[in-house]
Design goal:
The structure is a single chain. With 786 residues, the chain is mainly β. It has 6 helices and 39 strands. A hairpin with a 4-residue loop joins strand 25 and strand 26 (448-457). Helix 2 runs antiparallel to helix 4 (81-94).
Length: 786
Amino acid sequence: MPFSSVLRNLHKARLLVAFFAPLLLASATKAEDPILGDLNTDGVANVQDVALMVSHLQGIAFLPAEVTSLADVNKDGLLTSTDVEDLVRLILEREPTGALALAQIIQFSPANGEFKVSPTRETIVRFSMPLKEDTVLTNDHFYATFAGKRLLTRVELSSDRLKATLFYLDYLPSGARIRVTFNGVGLQDFLGRPIAPNGNGSTTALARADFETLSYTPVVNTGVVGTVYASKKNEQGQNVPLQGVVIEVVGDEENTRTTTDASGKFELSPVPAGRFFVNIDGRPVTGGFPNSGYYPFIGKAWSAVAGKTDNPAGGGSGIIYLPYIQPEALVTVSTTEETKIEPSASLLQESPELAGTELRVPANSLFANDGTRGGRVGIAPVAPDRLPEALPPGLNLPLVITIQTDGATNFDVPVPIRLPNTPDPETGEKLAPGERSALWSFDHDVGEWEIAGPMQVTSDGMFLETIPGVGVRQPGWHGQDPGSSGGGGGGDGDGDDDADDFTDLPGGDDDDGDDNSDLPDSDGDSDSDSDTDSDSDTDEDSDTDEDADEDEDCAEDEECEDCEEGAVVSLSGPEVGKVPSGAIKKFENLLNRIPRVRAEVAVAVGASGGEMQDCCPDKDSEPITNGRKKAETKAELSAVIRVKIWGPPLIHFQADFKVLIAEIVIDAGVNLNVNPSVGVSVGFELNDCTGKNCGFYEFAMNLNLKPEVLVEALAEACIGYGRWAACGDFEFSFSVSGPLFIAFKGFTNVDSCKGVTGNIGLDKIQFGIEFSALGVGVAYKYQIYP
């Protein structure tokens, strides 16, 4: 089986576990008489069930479909914060013990310690239970600071009162460390109790999270190139270039922007090195936004290699597709009742496969970043292979739709959606009634595809619907993937048409029946032998006969032949696809749920390749053409993991001395930064000259351990008398670190096709200390080993 298929199947198997494990667990422990609100089927509705329901509504962990009926406490057919409130009241009526924990923050987004955050990404906190119905959040409750100064922000509390969003009124600073603070003093939950934001039971302690933004500073001689086409081809089946599309680097729009020419091409330079975000604005193409048809405005995450001026846009082919939004597609949503969004009649004539697609927007749930409520929403189909960027390898959506608006970019609560039960692209089969799938959405703030939640096939088998409490969380690109292993075709599964269980190397079978790729002569001359002269014999001289009278290696009265091994021919095979970025993000989230762990995981694109060589059993025999063959596939996984292995929580101290008011925050402890990478190589070697026929593997792991003793302090103080006051900030940081590098490699011995060899190496141990306070910094490094 090709390695890319292995990766894809492993990924899909993980999805099966993620979605079906809770269902199997629920089925195994299901009580004979279900109890309303008993979501873990342990026979009683209690605080654990409240936590499960909140996690489901927050998109952290989803309930099995069979349990959602038990979560619908008020029996209105929906799963909302009202059910949470009713369940809590139900529990307190049965067991008025007061053991229900105070409301707390269960998630920061971006997470504490997260890095490479987009400069336009808002900050979200999610609560363990709804806040009081008349709660008003201000910037005294929820705010962000950089370099000791508050950023200009606006706070939005969701209608279910389970989520608060901090919108930034300007771009976040480039390459900066941002501190977000939530102060719950004076706030209450829906039961009228004070909240404890940081989860330690204190109603006065602050909850904080720090994250780092990516740099959007341009780098000279670094650029991106690409071409923008319409998603729909013309009547002749040709691409339609879009002229006038604006492309700009987010955070540096005034300086780094360009437009596409008549052929749809563009060059954007200089751009930041590494990962950065861009805006692609297709609205100027028609000039009809928002009342006429238009091409949309989208955000994407790109990357560029420093010093390279022709980085392909999006990292792939450099081709970007934009769908056309028909003017009749947009429907005004209601602020007082649910609005059903369906494809327009003209759109269904063009794309009948969309029949039955439906988006049900809750009342007053669409809003813009400035808080303006309402607007218009529409649906349009997009061919999965003609998206603004290609889907991640391994994610094969049978149908993709884009949900567009006339300006608003936020949904207050998840919006239920129904999609056609489209056949799987690989198997050609539809999911059966009751089977599960996953709703995938593109998160423009993160720049990746992510699973938004489970979907289930309707009883008639025609559609997939999100289960209660799950839905679309923002406009953009959406589709469903069953998460089951695909297949198709017969044979041995290696992708070629023979039965040898090996993937033929590039060139394919030459129809001579041997199932080996015949290759051109490797020495570059015009004859068919393996030497470097132009005659047709196998010796090194330049004559054309096969006697040895001009050779120096045989006596004049002897007849002999020289067997010469040919040069090694290197072959490159197809690229090995990445694990879908959505799956990687879920793996990151799993790691980041471990207390004090922050991780960023990436999969480098692997590649397949091989070698061929003419070989000699012995020097006096004819060489065997392509006698030695080797095929190999490689892939690499890398990550950045940050762990706080020791240290108390943030120490927060406030003092009011009437004249002097001081606030001090201290973060101390020992951090461990790990940069691991793991490389895997698998393949086989056939050598007809030596009789070798073996598979092999190679495993390489590199660790960069950086233990760090860190002390950071931030103080804010105000001195005042009467109406006069003066405030100042003080920052202090101290750290001691010592990086440790370890490398390990183990592999079967390819030359002998037996045994295992390996090595462990210690690169170096380095001690470093950095000190900074009041804007003055001192750094010292010393290499201890070697």
